[in-house]
Write a structure and sequence with these properties.
CATH topology of one domain: Helix Hairpins
Strand content: under 5%
Shape: elongated
Structural class: mainly alpha
Keywords: Coiled coil
CATH architecture of one domain: Orthogonal Bundle
CATH class of one domain: Mainly Alpha
Radius of gyration: 67 Å
Number of helices: 12
Order of helices and strands: HHHHHHHHHHEEHEEHEEEE
Length: about 575
């Protein structure tokens, strides 16, 4: 055989080698169960009436039953999975809701900041335009004031010239009138021109004064608008400062100081300020992403910690169960030893020679699954049980033969019973000529039925009484007699019952009731009248048709007694 083979002496040793090198079961019982299962699976395939469901039934029967403990662990695991799934779904819904809320809040803040910056830029533009208009109005005011000063000086000069002319006129009036007339006319003409010139200057002065008043009004309005725009700018700066404080935007203060310093010098450039604000906004967004990621990591850590705690609790429970199972296993070992002792004491065939085997088996039980298996536990009793098993197999075989004989007899009786059950009433021995005559009556449309097919015993009639009545009716020839609704029926090769109901006496109607086939056209009243025409007992007198419950009967002068 070489180094790779082995020679064994017994079938048991060969089974152990095959199990060790091929299947690897811990016990030979499991190996034997496998062999039996394979044989059971193979057996249906060798049968002529092979059904796939037979193999399914065999495999299903071979499966070990699930214990409550297995189902409890499985149920707990499924329940934990369902709870975890529900928690994850709830967390996903909450995370999605927070994400939507955060996005909406971000869009709101961005829109609010953009609106404030846009409004601030518009206010600054309006302020710049107002300041430019104010400068132009101030220049116009200065020009108008200079024109007013020149006009006032001209008016004053014209007043001096008027005084001079008046004095000159007075001086001329003292001269010779005739000598000075021409000069006077000339002077008056010049005076008129001077007055016209004064009127013109006064109108110009009045117009300039009106323009100056309008300019002052526009200046005041422009100054008010400039003050309002300046106040709006300050309000916007305060709002921006509040938002910058909330967002911790450190560059706002420097930009605000630059704006306050340079706003009076001309239009302020917001490019740098806007650039820094956008950079800070991106930094805030990145920080928000980092915080969100941190929150997710923190949540995962808490989840992992919770799972770790649950696993630790599960481990503690498993260890506790292990200790409990170890104690239970020790108790079961003792129970097995006690069970073996009880089995040995109850066995008349093994009790006398089984003490030594019991001691060896008890030691194997205490070493079970460590240095021994169940086959080692049973080995000491193997020789004792083989002889007893052989005897019992012989007894079982003999009893099996008896059981098979009884099963055959039972099957035969069941077939007879089924045959009786499928036939409602046994047909009496009706002759061929009678059957042919009844067939012709059916073709003629005559409604008829034989008595046995038209009645049924009442439920409370004892079986013995039923047998007596049926035997008497058959012996008297009435059981197969016809019942018909026709009064004068022409018939041949047959017997017809003519109803003549009797009253106030016991009749067959007290034991039988009409029960016609579904396809019958015979009236139930006809059957009932026929039953009431047959009297039970001797009250009807001589010559009447009577029956008795002991099987005796009388039809006219004929008397008889039927066999049971």
């Amino acid at each position: 055989m070489g180094d790779s083979g082995a020679v064994v002496q017994t079938q048991h040793e060969y089974m152990k080698l095959v199990n060790r090198h091929v299947f690897g079961f811990t016990t030979l019982d499991a190996y034997e169960e496998l062999i039996k299962l394979l044989i059971q699976i193979r057996s249906p395939k060798l049968s002529k009436e092979f059904r796939p469901t037979a193999i399914y039934d065999i495999l299903e029967a071979a499966l070990p039953p699930l214990t409550d403990e297995d189902l409890r662990h499985l149920s707990d695991t499924i329940e934990q999975m369902d709870q975890t799934k529900q928690q994850m779904e709830q967390l996903d819904r909450e995370r999605e809701a927070l994400r939507k809320l955060n996005n909406a809040y971000d869009r709101y803040n961005q829109r609010l900041l953009a609106d404030q910056v846009e409004e601030y830029q518009k206010a600054d533009t309006r302020l710049s335009k107002s300041e430019s208009g104010l400068s132009r109005m101030r220049e116009q005011q200065e020009t108008l004031l200079a024109d007013i000063s020149r006009l006032e000086e001209g008016i004053e000069q014209l007043g001096l010239e008027e005084d001079t002319l008046v004095k000159h006129e007075e001086r001329l009036s003292s001269h010779e009138v005739w000598d000075m007339e021409k000069e006077l006319t000339s002077e008056r003409e010049r005076e008129k021109q001077q007055k016209d010139k004064v009127d013109t200057l006064e109108k110009k002065e009045e117009s300039k004064t009106q323009q100056a008043l309008e300019s002052k009004t526009r200046i005041r309005e422009t100054e008010a608008k400039a003050a309002q725009l300046d106040q709006d700018g300050k309000d916007q700066l305060e709002k921006l400062e509040m938002l910058a404080d909330e967002a911790a935007f450190s560059g706002h203060n420097q930009n605000a100081e630059d704006y306050e310093k340079l706003v009076d010098d001309g239009p302020f450039e917001f490019m740098l300020w806007e650039k820094e604000a956008k950079q800070f906004e991106r930094a805030l967004s990145e920080g928000e992403d980092i915080l969100r990621a941190f929150a997710d990591i923190k949540e995962k850590v808490m989840t992992q910690k919770k799972a770790l705690d649950e696993e630790q609790q599960q481990l503690d429970r498993i260890r506790q169960e292990e200790r409990e199972w170890a104690n239970t296993f020790d108790e079961e070992k003792e129970n097995q030893v006690d069970a073996i002792r009880l089995w040995l004491d109850r066995s008349e065939h093994l009790r006398e020679h089984g003490e030594s085997a019991f001691q060896q088996s008890a030691r194997m039980v205490h070493q079970l699954f460590a240095d021994s298996n169940y086959e080692d536990v049973r080995a000491p009793f193997r020789a004792l049980t083989d002889h007893f098993t052989s005897e019992q197999k012989t007894i079982v075989a003999e009893r099996q033969v008896k059981i098979e004989d009884l099963e055959k007899e039972k099957a035969q009786l069941e077939e007879e019973r089924n045959a009786w059950q499928t036939t409602k009433e046994s047909e009496p021995g009706t002759k061929e000529a009678t059957l042919e005559a009844r067939k012709k009556l059916g073709e003629q449309g005559v409604a008829f039925e034989p008595l046995y097919a038209s009645v049924e015993f009442l439920d409370d009639v004892p079986e013995e009484t039923r047998v007596r009545i049926e035997s008497a009716l058959m012996d008297a020839g009435l059981l197969d007699a016809l019942l018909t609704d026709e009064d004068n029926l022409a018939f041949s090769h047959d017997r017809v019952l003519t109803p003549s109901p009797a009253f106030m006496v016991p009749t067959l109607a007290d034991y039988l009731r009409p029960e016609l086939p579904d396809e019958s056209r015979l009236r139930p009243e006809t059957v009932d009248d026929a039953l009431r025409s047959i009297v039970i007992g001797s009250e009807a007198g001589e010559g009447a048709t009577t029956f008795d419950l002991d099987g005796s009967y009388q039809i006219g002068m004929l008397k008889g007694h039927a066999l049971p």
